[in-house]
Amino acid sequence: MHVKRLSLTDFRNYRDAELELEPGVTVFIGPNGQGKTNLVESLGYLATVGSHRTSTDQAMIRAGQDAAIVRALLRHSERELLVEVQLNRGAANRAQVNRSAIRTRDLPRYFSSVLFAPEDLALVRGEPSIRRRFIDELLVQRAPRLAGVQSDYARVVTQRNSLLKSARAQNLKAAQLTTLDIWDERLVALGTELIERRADLVGELADPLRASYQAVAGVDQHPRISQRLTILGAAGDGDETDASAGALATDAGMAGEDLADQFRAALATVRRKELERGLTLVGPHRDELLFELNELPAKGYASHGESWSFALALRLASARLLREDSVVGDPVLVLDDVFAELDSGRRRALAGAISSFEQVLITAAVLEDVPEELGARMVRIRSGEVVTS
């Protein structure tokens, strides 16, 4: 699959933009702050229904406007597909495929893209929530129906937290605790599915992660991902930033009814603490992904270069998995201001690792940052306008 045409209306600093694209490598060139990243951010939104730069859709609507539109004409073999989304300030967002309305959360069914950006360094060095978002976005890209499971789970956590706060304020009335038991079962059912799906994905990432890391770093430092589950440790009072809250998942504790039973037992263990704090303290919304190099935690031990290579390898491994799954070809691979951070050796290694993808979009301040062997087509960007292509 590749993007044949990208059209933006009132998206970030673009009043109107229309850009014809081709398979192969295209580089968006321009000084910082001109709008290069905004272009690729729009494609990232179509693939993940989110931005790698902001947690609110409102920030992507041009100042003074009520809505922004992203429209992409996609091509695979002889088939073309028009995918579009409208971001609204005062109403729900809307999405269409070939002019027929769809749910916005279903956009990943129609377009697949993997974006690597400087912000991805936070995958290794940032908070647990960033790593959870990474794994959950990849889950949805591979199985879009899980967007509904994630949404339902988040809603249950919100409702359960509200009930916990109410019960605390009203001295634990019996009727409220009975209602809490009902919410517990929904939490267990949805949360167990998310934990299992994450575990499956972590296992599938192992080999492509190792191959991708070696490709970009030139050495095998045994990169590894594992899960730390709050329901296994039932710590409950661990801080959000404390990776020691919970216990490492093992194959024996990762499936079916046993996992659901462990979830219920954990909820029973932390019930008093949850009522005291008015928060749901165990479950996939508080679990952690652990990244390791040479059997040491990457966070805190890996150098800047190692952290960068690990984050990049995660995205390349994701792209390889999506390529294996897809019936419509490769995901569109996007590299946002990446080559400027790499030495010449890593640039060449990365160029080799991405050269087989059907379409690669790169942003760079200067063309010299991009390896010549990529044979890139160049598009100049200035002040929210496509100047030449």
Automatic annotation (TrEMBL):
ATP binds at residues 30-37. The keyword ATP-binding applies. It is found in: Cytoplasm. Residues 3-365 form the RecF/RecN/SMC N-terminal domain. Gene3D superfamilies: P-loop containing nucleotide triphosphate hydrolases (3.40.50.300), RecF/RecN/SMC, N-terminal domain (1.20.1050.90). It comes from the Bacteria. The keyword Transmembrane does not apply. InterPro entries: DNA-binding_RecF, DNA-binding_RecF_CS, P-loop_NTPase, RecF/RecN/SMC_N, RecF_2. Keywords: ATP-binding, Cytoplasm, DNA damage, DNA repair, DNA replication, DNA-binding, Nucleotide-binding, SOS response. Its main location: cytoplasm. PANTHER family: DNA REPLICATION AND REPAIR PROTEIN RECF. The RecF protein is involved in DNA metabolism; it is required for DNA replication and normal SOS inducibility. RecF binds preferentially to single-stranded, linear DNA. It also seems to bind ATP. Belongs to the RecF family. This is DNA replication and repair protein RecF. It comes from Gryllotalpicola reticulitermitis.
